[in-house]
Amino acid sequence: MKYILLAVIVLSLIMMPALASAKAAAKEKPQTQAGNLFSAFTGSESSKGLINIVLVLTVLAFAPAVLLLMSAFTRIVIVLSFLRQAMGIPQLPPNQIIVGLSLFLTFFVMAPTYEKVNTNALAPYMNNKIGFEEFIDKASKEMNTFMLKYTKEKDLALFMNIAALERPKTPQEIPIRVVVPAFAISELKRAFQIGFLLYIPFLMIDMVVASVLLSAGMMMLPPIFISLPFKLMLFVLVDGWNLLVGSIIKGFY
Asked: What percentage of the chain reaches a pLDDT higher than 70?
């Protein structure tokens, strides 16, 4: 819960300048006539406040997705979804359980990074030791450091070439607009690789059961009805949740 609140505070601080400027613009020129509403869309000073409000609402709408994309959430939730499909029970565990478990595992993995953001950026900013721009710069560097650690060079090169950027001398010089999408597709690739490995043991059980049913002449009986108990038994006997969650978390350390 501490890290959830920390992420919300960071996002709120980023939005504060836009909200402040919107309020200031509204106080300077109060609208008293219907014509002012039209002028707000045609280039008057009050239009700046309106634009700021629209930008704030837009960013707040997409902020959760952006924050999750810059964390370990992508890999975790896709791997857990692959597990459901591989076992043949796409409705169990429910989506709420999968997303909730993925969120808490994400905050567990991201805890060291969020601690650094709090120590090096948020705490000094709250104590008025650094300015807003320096706060954003330090917080972005900490997030960049985490993402670059798990981003493939091939994916970074792809977006660097598309953006026509020169090769940076140090990883810290790579802009965040390049790091985020490169990190996202790197995490997607790893998640699909893990999903493929998850399918193998359950696929072998399906093939064995299907072969037995075919040799017994029970062609009309769906193999999934027979193989599902064996899949569940295998997963429970090997303590599958412990192995899977442990492997996912250890992949970030």
From this structure: 77
